[in-house]
């Protein structure tokens, strides 16, 4: 049985081109289920006081899944499984989200340079009948090389760090900083394929 038969169709509640590419790699047909203009999507990503990174990413992912389900019900579209993922970078117990500007991106990258950090990606799925499956968490370890300020500034000037947790995308030019990874490369990109495939199998309906 092909992956297309296993996973005929899901809604993907993510704007990330990387997640879309990874889902296509599994052979999954999908339709985007994105926030409406009146939704405050950024509010879902607000940190709680003293919240651990793994608790944060799991909570945010589950909240995004519930928001996507409400969006689907309001749209009148055909019911189908929903897939959601959220990624964060953590070092020194701090959560590094998306940089607000170039200076913020530099501060993040300078903090990561020459050190190990963790990349956490949570994945949630909601079945066609509205059941939220337990959110799964992929944890990977990444070691960055030491990098001079000029190299970091040059990378930031490409615009690639903006909109990415920890101010980098491992699938892009940031690969020049990566000395070693332990864990899931696709998870670092934003959608761990092993965990995602298991979730998609769990929400199979009549196929």
SSE diagram, text form:
Layout: H1 3-6, E1 10-12, H2 17-25, E2 30-32, H3 53-75, E3 82-91, E4 94-96, H4 102-112, E5 116-126, E6 136-144, H5 149-157, E7 178-182, H6 185-189, H7 193-202
Parallel strand pairs: 1-2, 1-3
Antiparallel strand pairs: 3-4, 3-5, 5-6, 6-7
Helix pairs in contact: 4-5
Walk me through this protein's architecture.
- The protein is of the alpha/beta class.
- It has one domain (3-202): Maf protein, CATH 3.90.950.
- The chain contains seven helices and seven strands, in the order αβαβαββαββαβαα.
- The chain has helices at residues 3-6, 17-25, 53-75, 102-112, 149-157, 185-189, 193-202, and strands at residues 10-12, 30-32, 82-91, 94-96, 116-126, 136-144, 178-182.
- Strands 1, 2, 3, 4, 5, 6 and 7 form a seven-stranded mixed beta sheet that branches.
- α4 crosses α5 (149-157).
- Its EC number is 3.6.1.9.
